[in-house]
Amino acid sequence: MSNAHSWLGFIGAGKLAGSVIRGLLLRNVCAPEEIIASEPNGELRARLRTELGIRFTAENAEVAEKAEVMFLGLKPQMVLPVLRELGESAAGKLIVSFAAGVRISSMEEVTPARVMRVMTNTPSAIACAATGFAAGSRTTDDDRQKIAGMFNRIGTAVEVTDEQIDAVTALAGSGPAFVYTVIAGLGKGGNGEGLPSDVALKLAAQTAMGAATLALRSGKSPKELIDLVVTPGGTTAAGLRVMEEGRASEAIAGAVEAAARRGREMAQENR
User: Fold this and answer.
1) If 0-12 CB within 10 Å is exposed, 13-18 middle and 19+ buried, where does residue 134 land?
2) Minimal CA–CA distance to 110: which of 92, 138, 77, 87?
3) Comparing 4-164 with 175-266, is the CATH topology the same?
4) Where are the alpha helices (DSSP H) in 32-118?
5) What whole-number distance in Å separates Cα of residue 173 and Cα of residue 235?
6) From start to end of the chain, where are the E strands?
7) Under a CB-based contact definition with an 8 Å cutoff, are residues 198 and 187 in contact?
8) By the 8 A CB rule, do 32 and 54 touch?
9) Contact 187, 200 (CB under 8 A)
């Protein structure tokens, strides 16, 4: 990406898009000067320009003019209006939407661009993203390879169908909030047993990270990993018994199901 017409473009640079930009810069996928972003919030533009060193504009049309690949970091209800606003300036471009609940078919109806969806999460900022991407009817193999390569550089990326993006949204997109809830609960328990709150939270977060890393690297199932920790009649068994009585696993699965259901509802609302 060495010239102005091959820049990466971001329309909207809020929480998720900003996290992706940070990850791309962290992994040297591109240089700051090779990214252009439009952001209506002037205060956010100024702060991110200083922090990230990328080029900012208040005009979506300028992003469409400069970039060959455009990411939409917009609220779902804004995706279709912005695509209509871009009109023919999006022709020949690849547009990748981060929005939950807006189907590729709905986007393809209002833009001549090639369209994909990516659902990732805020850990992309530290190149630890979990990402699902879906191709549209006009998507080329080169487009798919480009997006897969980019998001595998900042984490792990898998290709799914557009319909499966709702599940990815719930699991990967919303999932960090569910994990933080578990971390908060672990910390609260440690604090209740006499640890200072900051110490308890630090140990809780490190425990979650270590357990997740071991799960990824070992290839063992959660059940196998649990068995490595549990001693019959021991402390872990006592704690797990309380979690089972509280149906903790079912509650977390239910949270994913509720988030996915809301994604499907949003797809009906944004047509």
Assistant:
1) buried
2) 87
3) no
4) 42-52, 60-66, 76-86, 104-108
5) 33
6) 7-11, 35-38, 55-57, 67-72, 94-97, 114-119, 129-135, 155-159
7) no
8) yes
9) yes
Residue 40 exposure: Cα atoms within 13 Å on the Cβ side: 6
Q: What pLDDT, in 10s, does the model give residues 52-77?
A: 999 998 899 999 999 999 999 999 99
- Contact present, 213 and 139 (Cβ < 8 Å): no
Residue at token pair 């990230």: 52
Segments making up each domain of the chain, as ranges = 4-164, 175-266
Neighbours of 125 (CB within 10 A): 20
Kindly report, residue by residue over 72-126, the tens digit of the pLDDT: 999 999 999 999 999 999 999 999 999 999 999 999 999 999 999 999 999 999 9
Structure tokens at 260: 């996915």
Query: Which pTM does this prediction carry?
Result: 0.90
**CATH superfamily placement of domain 175-266:** ProC C-terminal domain-like (1.10.3730.10)
Copy the structure tokens of residue 38.
Answer: 């439009």
Right CATH for 4-164 from 3.40.50.720, 3.40.250.10, 3.50.50.60, 3.40.630.30 = 3.40.50.720
* DSSP letter assigned to residue 3: S
